[in-house]
Design a protein that fits this description.
single chain; alpha/beta; 8-stranded mixed sheet; about 30% helix; Alkaline Phosphatase, subunit A; two-stranded antiparallel sheet
C-alpha cells in the first residue's frame, strides 16, 4: 500500500492519546509487595529511597574500610591535617573513629557526628547504617556500571534501575500521581552519562516508568522545560519514535513473543522524549524551589567541599523532594566536587587521596546535615559505586578494585548497625574472603535488600528472579540477612 499523508494522519490520530508511552508487548504482572514481619513501624509505609552512586569507583580505604596496615594506600594517611583537611572541611580536622569494632577513616566522620533531633535526643547516621562488603569480577567501567547501577548484568532484557520499579510499585498501590522517580546527574563525563542512563533503565516495567534524567549545572535545561511553542508537533514526535521502536522489534525464529532488542541509543532517545512529552511541566514545578542550586551559572559557580557543589545540592534537593512530595526515589549520580572518583594516575589538579576523601566526606556531610529529615520521613539511603579503588603505587593514582569494596545503607529500619559480609578484615585490600554464610556478597544482593525496604519482593518476575545466579543469597530475605531488618 502506498504511504500517503492521509494514512499518516490516521496513524497519528490513532496513537495521539498515548504518544508519550511506547508500546509494550505484554501487560506485566503486578509487583508482589513485601513488608518485614514487624510491620513498617512509625510510618506504616515502604521507605522512600535516596540512591547515591559514587561514579568512577570510590576508594573505601580511607572511609568505611580503614586499614592502618596499608599505610598510604588507605588514602587519608597521606592528607595533611594542616592544609588538606581544613580545605575540605572549612577548618575542622575530622577524627578517625572506631565504629562497631572497626576503625573508620576521617572521610566517614560525618556518619558519626551527633545531631540533635530537637527533642533533647542526639543521634547520628551510624546508628542506622550497615556497611556491606561486596565484590564482583567486572574490571571495565563499561561493564561494572550497568551491573552495579541495576544489580543485573548486561544482556538481560529485564535490566532496570530501582527507580522504574519503585515508580511502578507506587502507581500500582496508590494510582498515578505524576513523577515518582528522578535521576540527578551532577557530572558531565561519559561515565556519568552511562551511570545515569542505567539508573534510569526500565527493564520490563514499562517505559512510562523511566525516571527523567536531570542534567545539573546548566540553566538551559531547566529554562527549556516549559517547552513554549513546542507542543504542536508532539504527535509527530511520538509517531516517529514508535517507528524507531518497531525497527528494533525481534520475533524469535522458533516462536515466542516478540520483544524490542536492547539499544543504548534508543533508550537514551526514548527517555528524553518521554521527559519532554509527559513530564515537562511537572518537572518544572518540582524543580523550581531548587533551580538556583541545581542549575547555577557555570561561568560563575565555584564549588567547594563544605558549602556548595552539585552533588551536595543534588543530595539536599533529593531529600527535600522525598520528604515533601510524591517522589519515591531519587538517584544522584555523584560526579564529585571538583573531579569524579576515577582517579587514575593522579591526573586531576589535586591528589587522588584528596579527591577521594574530599568527595566522600562532602557527600556524607550533606547527609549528616539532613539526618533528622532522613530518619523522620522514612528515607532509606544507598551509597554505592561501580567498584572500589586501590593505590598500588604511592602517589601514582589508583586502580580498579572489584574484588572487595563496600556499599552502605542507612535507614531508620536498621536498628542493629555494623558490617555485613565475611571479607578478611586483616588484609582487606587483597580481598581474601573468609568462609561463612555471607561470603562474597554481590551488588545484586544489595539491590534486592533495598528493593525490600521500598516494599518490593525482589525475587519475582521483572525484578531479580532471573538474577539469582548473581546473588550470594538467592531467594533469601535480603533485608534481614544484609540489613538486620526483621
Amino acid at each position: 500500500m502506498k504511504f500517503s499523508r492521509r494514512l499518516m494522519l490516521q496513524a497519528l490520530a490513532a496513537t495521539a492519546a498515548g504518544t508519550a508511552v511506547s508500546r509494550s508487548f505484554a501487560t506485566p504482572t503486578p509487583l508482589t509487595t513485601w513488608a518485614p514481619a514487624s510491620g513498617w513501624g512509625t510510618f506504616g509505609a515502604p521507605r522512600r529511597v535516596l540512591e547515591i552512586f559514587l561514579r568512577g569507583g570510590a576508594s573505601q580505604w580511607g572511609a568505611f574500610w580503614y586499614d592502618a596496615t596499608l599505610g598510604a594506600a588507605t588514602g587519608d594517611t597521606t592528607l595533611s591535617t594542616v592544609t588538606d583537611w581544613p580545605t575540605i572541611t572549612n577548618g575542622i580536622v575530622p577524627p578517625s573513629n572506631f565504629w562497631q569494632g572497626y576503625q573508620l577513616g576521617r572521610a566517614a566522620a560525618p556518619a558519626l557526628r551527633y545531631v540533635s533531633n530537637g527533642l533533647g535526643v542526639n543521634r547520628f547516621l551510624g546508628q542506622h547504617m550497615r556497611v556491606i562488603r561486596v565484590r564482583h569480577e567486572l574490571l571495565p567501567h563499561e561493564a561494572a556500571i550497568p551491573y552495579t547501577a541495576t544489580g543485573t548484568t548486561l544482556g538481560r532484557t529485564h535490566m532496570s534501575g530501582l527507580g522504574a520499579a519503585i515508580w511502578r510499585r507506587a502507581d500500582e498501590q496508590e494510582g498515578p500521581l505524576g513523577v515518582r522517580s528522578l535521576v540527578f546527574q551532577s557530572g558531565s563525563e561519559s561515565g556519568d552519562d552511562l551511570a545515569a542512563r542505567y539508573a534510569a533503565m526500565c527493564g520490563n516495567h514499562g517505559p512510562e516508568f523511566i525516571p527523567p534524567i536531570i542534567t545539573l549545572g546548566d540553566p538551559a535545561f531547566y529554562n527549556a522545560l516549559p517547552r513554549t511553542n513546542l507542543t504542536t508537533s508532539d504527535a509527530l514526535k511520538g509517531f516517529y519514535r514508535d517507528r524507531y521502536e518497531d525497527r528494533l522489534r525481534f520475533t524469535p525464529a522458533g516462536g515466542g513473543a516478540p520483544f524490542v532488542v536492547r539499544s543504548d541509543g534508543f533508550s537514551a532517545y526514548n527517555a528524553s522524549l518521554n521527559t519532554a512529552l509527559n513530564h515537562h511541566q511537572a518537572l518544572h514545578s518540582l524543580l523550581a524551589p531548587y533551580a538556583a542550586d541545581l542549575f547555577p551559572d557555570p561561568l560563575t559557580f565555584v564549588p567547594d567541599y563544605h558549602t556548595q557543589s552539585l552533588p551536595r545540592h543534588a543530595v539536599e534537593a533529593a531529600i527535600s523532594l522525598l520528604s515533601t512530595t510524591d517522589v519515591r526515589h531519587v538517584a544522584v549520580i555523584d560526579g564529585g566536587v571538583e573531579s569524579h572518583y576515577d582517579t587514575h594516575k593522579g591526573a586531576a589538579a589535586r591528589t587522588p587521596a584528596f579527591i577521594q576523601n574530599g568527595n566522600i566526606w562532602s557527600t556524607l556531610d550533606a547527609l549528616a546535615d539532613n539526618l533528622n529529615t532522613i530518619l523522620d520521613n522514612g528515607i532509606a539511603v544507598l551509597l554505592h559505586s561501580e567498584f572500589g579503588r586501590i593505590e598500588e603505587t604511592a602517589n601514582d593514582g589508583t586502580e580498579h578494585h572489584m574484588k572487595g569494596y563496600v556499599n552502605a545503607v542507612i535507614s531508620d529500619l536498621i536498628t542493629s548497625p555494623g558490617f555485613t559480609g565475611d571479607i578478611d578484615p586483616v588484609i582487606p585490600s587483597r580481598a581474601t574472603f573468609a568462609g561463612g554464610a555471607l561470603d562474597g556478597l554481590s551488588p545484586t544482593d544489595t539491590h534486592a535488600a533495598v528493593a525490600q525496604l521500598a516494599g518490593i519482593e525482589p525475587w519475582q518476575t521483572d525484578m531479580f528472579d532471573d538474577d539469582q545466579d548473581l546473588a550470594s543469597l538467592p531467594g533469601a530475605d535480603e533485608a534481614y540477612e544484609l540489613l538486620g531488618v526483621l
